[in-house]
Amino acid sequence: MLDDAGLQALREAARLSPDNLPLRRHLAEQLLSKGYLADAEAEFRAALLLAPKDPDVTAGLAEAFVRQSAHGAALSALEPFLATPGYPPRMGVLAARALLGEGETGRAAQRYHEAVSRDPSAADPELAARLTVPPPPAYPPPPAPPTPAYATPVPPTPAYTTQADAPSGAEVEKAKLTFADVAGMEAVKESLRVKLLLPIQQPELFAAYGKRAGGGVLLYGPPGAGKTHLARAAAGELGAAFVNVGLADILDMYVGSSERNLRATFDLARRNRPCVLFFDEVDALAARRSDMRQAHTRQLVNQFLAELDGVDQSANEGVLVLAATNAPWYIDVAFRRPGRFDQLVFVPPPDASARAAILRILCRDKPLAEMDFDAVARVTDHYVGADLKGLVDRAVEVKLQQSISAGRPIPMTTGDLLAAAQGTRPTAVREWLATARNYVLHANESGAWDDLMPWIRSKW
Ligand code: ADP
Does the structure show a pLDDT above 80 at 182? Predict the structure, then answer.
């Protein structure tokens, strides 16, 4: 275990590099193991902002809660994981401790034995001794039809009672980013401003010209080009809540649950209006129905369309639906009808000046020497935002090691970024553009791909 000086160095390192997830997680675990529970809780929370679905971070946070007797908070943190089959056994044991703390000995025992039967090394004899209920399968009384609670991946009795309350897995964020945090992409930002923000900010103007607010925007472009970043910034720009829906939040192995998750997600956004509801990888959800063999998946698409349309005109008022895809050509045309994703916005790979601007943003909270970001931009042709973020993270790792050895923060230099660039390669933007070319070159009668065309025709 670290001594206090080591812990202090780790805290300092985390302060200098607030976005370094492995570092924050390590610090949080050290704090937990030394019993600094409130500090550990704060660090795990910070780490969770960086990686909202990380099971280790969630388990760490839950442990910090349990050890502070915040049993309800622990259960809330664990709940999304416990509802999925195959959740980490450590979480089951933590849930058992929290349930016991809440006086629910039966459920605690059930959780405990289920977890330990999957991973005996998670056993906690002291806890087991307090769970004085006979081991399974004597409890709980088998439901009808009698499916053994431990063998099948049936989620535990949900705390909610109606479909509308069912958890969707998605969470509400208060977006802190604004368009100022999105480098380059001036044309894209301007078009989002007109399409999304102005109708909300100045509805009279739009009404005067007979333009209707609403309708969703589909962002498309190569992976890592900043679609999610942009959507989050649009929410911040508007002062709206942000709900980020990943495919895993919706798709569910239980037939019927996906539709319920989808409805719950839209309801969550409606309860938090104004809200930007963002669907990542939407092509998987909105694929052409003719491509789908399974009736169940078609049903999900129909449900998605129904939610987009809303039961009445005001159902989705104040809810801006944004979606992102790397494969827009797979999207069912039904989704592009008026009122649905009727606006397509291309999020391009960054050019050199945009790359320099992205690097500037990515480095702005770090200790820096005088930097020549343009020089780094010149050697990072074909890098997208996510690649540049990887490059900066790599350079920061190296600098951090040096700073820890030196016992003081050493500012990052242009050379550090150039060295990191040598060790990284861009992801597949060129391949993406080649694929895009195949799909859209002869299929642009409607003008849907106008934004993309100059890129397709250029020599990328
Ligand atoms: P996508 O959703 O298109 O796959 P992301 O939005 O996840 O890409 O981008 C990955 C990361 O790259 C973001 O979290 C952000 O840090 C960085 N990034 C991408 N584009 C930009 C940009 N224009 N300005 C600043 N950072 C960016």
Answer: yes
